Each structure stands twice: as structure tokens, then as C-alpha cells.
Amino acid sequence: MGIQRIQLFNKVYYFSAPARCSRQVRSIGTPGGGCCSYHTVPVVSKLLTPWIRSGIQLQRCNLSSHSKSASSGKQNDGIHSETVRTVAKWIQDLEKQGLPKIIVLCGAGVSVAAGIPDFRSPGTGLYDNLQKYNLPYPEAVFDLDYYRQRPQAFLSLAKEIWPGVQEQHSPTLTHSFLALLEQNNLLLRCYTQNIDGLEFLGGMSSDKIMECHGHFRSASCIRCGSPADIEKVKESILQQQGTPMCEQCHIGHVKPDIVFFGEALPPRLNLLIQNDLPRASLMLILGTSLQVVPVSLIPDWVPSSCRRVLLNRELVGNLAIGTGSHPNEKSRDLFQAGDCDDSILAICRALGWEDLLRKQNEATRIRATATTTMDAK
Ligand SMILES: [Zn+2]
């Protein structure tokens, strides 16, 4: 398949798909690898969707063929050393500038090492493990109407994953790396799709985190919207004292401020996207399948000058991936296959940050007290 071209308004978009390796797909990009503007991306995505479905597999990555083609630069652990060195150099270049210009986008993959169940992986995914609650459909656990009628499924789940309670759900090396980015004045913002609160527990300040799907640090009534005392809600859920009720209207159920289906995303998200994205120089996309809009569209909304690095088990999204292995590599996008923590550790070694990383991780390890150990059982 050759290069395909679409003209839309005053911009021209190109794609090409090499016949054998879908990993090398060059997708939605203006000449020179630019990206679409905030407003045209949704239109372009809509236009391209039938095409993508008909012939080009953007979501799949043939890792075995990638291994062969890139074997010269790879270490034994599967980490591509050239890619790692390039990413480290990009970070060092920004460090010299002394301005926070890195945007991070986190998905479930950054929390896999913390034992947080992935929402979508068949067999091990959260939805598959919810069968014991006899949900009419798995997503009902995050459905507002269902919670109103049968809150037990969500309450049981919340007890299981409440942040900061169980030692095995401690922040991962990737979360510690994000805290180091902030400490070194490199971080513009971390957008996360996760509700496990591990970015915060890993040492980042709440100002630097945009938890797109909410968090467990506050709670409110689903009927009147009044804020509730989060400590009381937490105790009620962990001690299985029944559904927390609103102390203002007295008839509404209270839940942590996790965004359920049918609820609006936090208004802060829209504001930050508009303010942050034009200022980004480097975007790190970590452990996400980029399947949930609007967060999945953020990589398409950064300026064409912004470099993008995907650390994930497989290639996803619309990145024009380079390997970093060629001296004349012009691509602004890089992809490193594998688990996030392995890639992050390699990058930290290249930066000389490994000791700092491990100290940060140790300092934020969750230590279960006697009470919380009992609670967790
Ligand atoms: Zn209420």
C-alpha cells in the first residue's frame, strides 16, 4: 500500500502502510510529520475511521518482526538502547532549558506492577473479575443508575482498590519517575486515566496531576452534589458499614468522586488541555491503549514541534513511529515496546537517575498498619 493523501480545509494529511509490518504505519500527519489542530482532529479521525477499518491496522503491532528489524540496538531485556538514549537526551535538553514542558499521559499499564486490575484485559481484567456481583453488564459497576439501585458492587470494588490502603498497591517505578520529573521542574502536567491515585501517592503534587476520570480523595452526593467528609466515606466503605448517605439531603447516596458513565468529566480537564498543550515540547504516553476519548485524542492535539514517546506493550494511536536507531532519523515519535517499568528504569539509567528513582519509590511505599491490614481482609 502506497502513501495515501487526504486534503481537508487547507491541510493535507498523509498516511502510508508498509505491506508487512503494521508497526511502521505512518499515519495522520501533515507533510513533515506535523499534527492536526485541536478542532480538525475529531473531523479527520471521523473521516479516516472507515479507511483504517478497511485496510490499515493501527492498533496492532507485530512485535516479532520488530525484534528482528531492530535487534542490533537491543539489550537482553528487550529495551531498545538507541530509543532509550534518544529519550534521555530529549529530557536532558529540556532540563537545560529549565522550563516544565513535558506532558505525560498515563493509562492502566503504569499501574500493572502495582497489582491494580486492568479494566480491559480479558481474563485478568477488572470487568471479568466482577462476575461474582451478577452485574447485568460489566460496566454497570460504574453506572450511576445502577449504583443508585444496587450500590454493593461498586462499594466492594472500592474497598478492594481504595488508594493507600494495601501495601501491594504501592506506587510503581513509573510513578516515582513522574515525581522526579516534577522535582526537576520538567513536568508541565500528568494526565491520567487511572483512578488508583498512584500518581499522587507516588509523590506528585495534585496541581501537576489531571485525573481525567476522578479520584478517591473527595466524595459527594449523587443526588444533590453536596461534598461529603471523605474520611467518613472511606471508613464506611472499608469497614463495610453500608452505603454512605448524604448528610445534607439525607436521601442521596454518596460516592467517591470517580467519574461514572453518564457523568461529565471534570471541568478542569478542558481548561488544562487548552492551556497546556500549546506549551508542550515532549509528550510521554505511558501504558495506555488510547481507546477512551477524549483522553486518547490528546496526543493528536499537541503542536507539531512536540516530540512524542510511546512506552507500551504494543503500538497504539496515530504515531509516526521512528526507532531512533538511525543517525538521520527525523521522526518526532518514538516507540518502545514492553512494560512501562522496564522502559522507565532504562531511561533513568541513561539519565543517571536510578538511585534517585529507587529512593523515591522506597519513600512512597505503602506500609499497611495493623488497622488497614485488617481492613484489607
Ligand atoms: Zn445529597
From TrEMBL:
Gene Ontology CC: nucleus
Alphabetized GO MF terms: histone deacetylase activity, NAD-dependent; metal ion binding; NAD+ binding
Domain Deacetylase sirtuin-type: 81-354
SUPFAM superfamilies listed in its UniProt record: DHS-like NAD/FAD-binding domain (SSF52467)
Positions of the catalytic residues: 213
Cofactor(s), names only, from the UniProt record: Zn(2+)
PROSITE patterns in UniProt: SIRTUIN
Record keyword NAD present: yes
Residues engaged in binding Zn(2+): 221, 224, 246, 249
Source species, domain of life: Eukaryota
Record keywords: Metal-binding, NAD, Transferase, Zinc
Gene3D superfamilies according to UniProt: SIR2/SIRT2 'Small Domain (3.30.1600.10), TPP-binding domain (3.40.50.1220)
Coiled-coil stretches noted in the UniProt entry, renumbered to this chain: none
Name of the protein: Protein deacetylase sirtuin-2
Organism: Seminavis robusta
